[in-house]
Here is the input.
Amino acid sequence: MAKKLWDTSPHLALRAGPDFALAALDRSSTPGFTGDKADGQERMADRGELLSELQERLFADGKHGGTRSVLLIIQGLDTAGKGGIVRHVMGMVDPQGVSLASFGVPTKEELAHHYLWRIKKELPEPGKIGVFDRSHYEDVLVARVDNLVEEQVWRKRYAEINRFEQRLVDSGTTIIKVALMCSYEEQARRILERIERPDKRWKHNPGDLDTRAKWDEYQDAYQDVFRYTSTDHAPWYVVPADKKWYARVAITELVTQALIDIDPKWPNPRWQVAVQRRRLLSTVEPELAKHLEETVAEQLKEAKEEYGDYLALKDSVAQLKDVDNGERAPATTNSDQDNGEKDTESSDSSESSSKKSGDSAEHSVTKKSAGSGAKDSKAGSGSKKNTKKQDKKNKKKKSKKKGKK
Ligand code: ATP
Here is the structure.
């Protein structure tokens, strides 16, 4: 049987609950994971295959009227490894199905709008996995630490962000928020490496040292982000990031499990298989038609042996919820009201005009609960059997691949 590598699901081990204390986080720890770096890398490769399959299903579903999408929000201070997550985790899926947006210092045009304006423009369409490298959370992080707006302005944003994310979830987007947290010492090591290594110098921005000088203020600002915006509909997962391999395998797991929860199905064709087959085969000589039919039937048989029946079975992806610990956190509403500001519709002076038109209009497709947080996986012995079968198939597939190399 495959080694059980998660003794606690990252959904549980990393979720910022109401009592979460950032100061107590051991940033070189590997919560929930029982393996080492090599196990992590192997696990990632395994999950990558499933992730890729699920992403293709999501994409296909989106092309056929589906309303579901995923939004991965990545936050973290400089050198925390945000870019590595994009490359290593999202690099495992078809780039066609991914929309990536990075949010730097706002432009003049962006500053003239509500802070969510630029965010809304980049939200993933149905069928897509959107990835935000930094996000609207900068508007309660750098905006607070650098006093870019007054306290009463950024304080109101927590509740506003919660409402905004709730609407997104209601319209079919699963939101996964990850904060990569590395230690003060590890950040120094990474910055020094950037300064010293000619092939990394391009990444160093002298301004990163000014940000580093405000480390404690940023820790306080992040603590409040987790306190006020880790909601049941869009919880925060705080990822210790000193070990890059751990952050990658953990986020791979979070995204894969979110897709397993969505359980996107291959869309049914809007045409009749028999009619299309007949029509196509009538375009060639009968002998060739027969040969083609036999060849494709053989290929399908081989594919089934290699990949297993789960590609065809409607329910099997749902059963995969139980693969190597798919536990989900029970609902634990964080106090998103108790942030010193009541949940009012007021906004920054420059924001009021765009807000009303934008917030709800763009994301009100259909009401569907998307949260990955509250659903418990219920899989009986049947699904475990299925898991074993799948493990065996994966191994077979891998050894075949190795053989090919
Ligand atoms: P990164 O550090 O994210 O890998 P980078 O160093 O190349 O990227 P940019 O992407 O150009 O830099 O911009 C990141 C910077 O933009 C960060 O310092 C961040 O705090 C700042 N920033 C992002 N959003 C805002 C915002 N809403 N207001 C002010 N500054 C912001």
User: Anything to note?
Assistant: The chain has a mean pLDDT of 82.
